[in-house]
Amino acid sequence: MKPFLAFAIPLLIWALCLGAPPAALAAGDYWPDQQWRKATPESQGMCSAMLADMLDRLWQKNLEVDSILIVRNGYVVLDTYQFPRTPEARHDLHSCTKSISSTLIGIAIDKGYIASVAQPLLDFFPDKTPRHPDKRKQQITLQDVLRMTTGLKCRDSIHHQWAGLRALRGSTDWVQHMLDLPIAEAPGTRFEYCNGASFLLTAIIQQVTGQPGLAFAKEHLFTPLGIQDVDWPANSRGQTIGWGRLCMRPRDMARFGYLFLKDGRWNGRQIVSAQWVADATRSHIPVGRASGYGYQWWVMGPGEVAAIGYRGQRIYVSKRHNMVVVFTGRLAALSRFLPAGLFRRYIMPAVKSDRPLPGNHAAFARLQSLDQFWQTANYADRDTRRQAMAPGSSQPQWKPYVNPSMGFSLTYDADLGDSGPELVPPVVFQKSGLTGFPVVTVVCDDIPDGLKLADSEDYIVRQLAQTQGVNHIQVKHKERIRLPGGEGNFCIIKLKYLGYNLTAYGVVGYREKTLIGVYAVGGGLETPLAHLEHMVRSLRIESLQP
């Protein structure tokens, strides 16, 4: 067979199977009621080469992502599943379920079952009285429940090892259990992740409509969107579990995301009001790594929100790029930021234009080849291919970073990327791996009163202790080292993050009244610990005073 024909036939098969790629980007009146239409990435203004690089990275690093689905302008440009996963298999959404539970509240308000989000929580359950009365509980509104600012002492998240969730599930009346919780602060003042609050949403739906959350969702949300194959269990009282355990197919997860991309409208019908979509997806309260939290949606930035679930489930909605991205996975807690890393470092940069790009047959053929390999190669085949890679291919490429205004420089692994949120002083530099680890951080701060250079590891310990989920911090080793122009303090610190053992390497140096410190934290999974030590020891401080 001639080389041209061998190359062209796969592309012809793609065109016959998917239909000709659209000439324009806009999806028009097409709605994926039955199935999604597909198109090449370039036809939708995206770069096949970057998407191929992403798949290449996934199998080489053996990262446990089960599926990735990218919809741009209403067309699927990537729909891939790691063997043995298939498109037909339902996946546990975990806490992505919360965004659907909150949408049911919006629909209930639209239909007049609920007056507004200002309605007090206790009004929905007039037959129940909190065991420990507190006037502040009377101030908790439905809005507080939606944005997780109830003030209740839930302690039911991963940061509390699910203790509160086990207590809730062990109770005979889940609603009563939630109302009986102690209240720690005034409602509306602070975000506190609370699975029990999300359960209250579906309990409220059942209270006001007489239908369990699943039945209400099937009638008013799932069926209109063409979502048929779902499973959403209930507790012993028949109340749908609003915080999670909803199972559906990735393509149906994308339908839900597409509904929000289209301001709650679907094929000529307003499923949930555009006003609700706007209210649910704007930031109501600042929180952690995200820009803020809406009504059970994480606000990631201007025009970008995400439904986020345990072990790597995601539904990203990007209005500024007219795109929906779905991830499913089986990630360990230590790798839970992997979807965010893939989204930020590969998928978003792959969006090159609001118009079609010239075809890139070589890049698209490579994407197809990697897609096919990822979907058909078993674990043994992937291991064999990894072992056959050229020796030294896993060695890092060191990249210099110079900060002339602060007077320091260092080298870091070029494979690391931006950590996501804006840097908050005293942090002046931070890079991280795709999974969120390792994290390399540089801080510049005034030298704390009385802190000698020989004891400056205490400063790094205090910085680490400010990270939620970090505990059991112990300095295992420290020594004075030579830095250009003076001395530094090198340390090795052991710590736990969400129960995982991690190691931090750090170097601190003083220049006049300024402390300059670098520390790198990791578990050795994505980046060898020796590379972390290399990065911190590369710190150079100009004109360092002894």
Report on this structure.
It is a single chain. 30% of the residues lie in helices and 23% in strands. The chain has 546 residues and is of the alpha+beta class. It has an 8-stranded mixed beta sheet with strand order 1-3-2-12-11-10-9-8, sandwiched between helices. The longest helix has 16 residues. It is globular.
Topology summary:
Layout: H1 3-18, E1 37-38, H2 48-61, E2 65-72, E3 75-81, E4 91-92, H3 97-110, H4 142-146, H5 163-170, H6 174-180, H7 195-209, H8 213-222, E5 247-248, H9 250-261, E6 265-266, E7 269-270, H10 274-280, E8 292-293, E9 298-301, E10 304-309, E11 313-318, E12 323-329, H11 338-350, H12 361-376, H13 379-387, E13 398-403, E14 408-413, E15 417-418, E16 427-432, E17 439-446, H14 457-465, E18 470-483, E19 486-497, E20 500-511, E21 514-522, H15 529-537, E22 540-541
Parallel strand pairs: 1-3
Antiparallel strand pairs: 2-3, 2-12, 4-5, 6-7, 8-9, 9-10, 10-11, 11-12, 13-14, 14-22, 15-16, 16-17, 17-21, 18-19, 19-20, 20-21
